[in-house]
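call fold(seq) -> tokens
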Amino acid sequence: MRHNVKGRKLNRTSSHRRALMRTLLTQLLEYKRIHTTEAKAKELRPYAEKMITKARLAYQREQQGLLDDGQKYDVHTRRLLGRDIRKKEVIEALFDEICPEIGDRPGGYTRIVKTGIRRGDSGRAALIELVDYNREIVGNAPKKAKKKAKPAKNVSAPVAEVVEPIAEVVEEVTETVVDTVEETVEVVAEAAVETTEAVVDTVEEVVEEATSEEVSEETNEDVKSEDTTDSEEAKKD
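ret:
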């Protein structure tokens, strides 16, 4: 039985667990809020609180001028924090943004919000965040002033000024189109009449030629028949 055994193993070795805590701490300070499992969030909270307290006290010493002569920053504390926070820009943000926001408050820098059961592995999920960067949930955020509705502008006069020239242009275009259509219809009608007359003349010529050919054929047949009768009578004689 695990009596008086502090902390959670999280199914990891000590080195892996230490690396996990350092990564979660860096992400929390960088993004001010992370979503993870409930066990990891509860294990991260005291670890992060100690790091932030260490940075807060160093920041106060820097502001009060309690450092050694010639020092402007608490380099020693920053190096100690650098063992757990592996990003220099996150350490700078911790001293320049987070510590001034915290002020003199001794602890209570983080909050854990349970978000229910996670889909997939049914693990208990939670949200851990920095309290000072979530005023909307706490309720301290300044309310946004409601914008007053602006009175509607009188747009009837400008619209009328724009519509009248457009109507005139539409009328002119309509008249031009109508005139063009009428002229086109007249031209087409004249062309159709001329074409019809030409077709009639051609048909009459073809009919005349056909009748003359028939008459000539009949005449030739009559001549041939007379010649045959004369030749037969001559043979009889």
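The chain has a mean pLDDT of 85.
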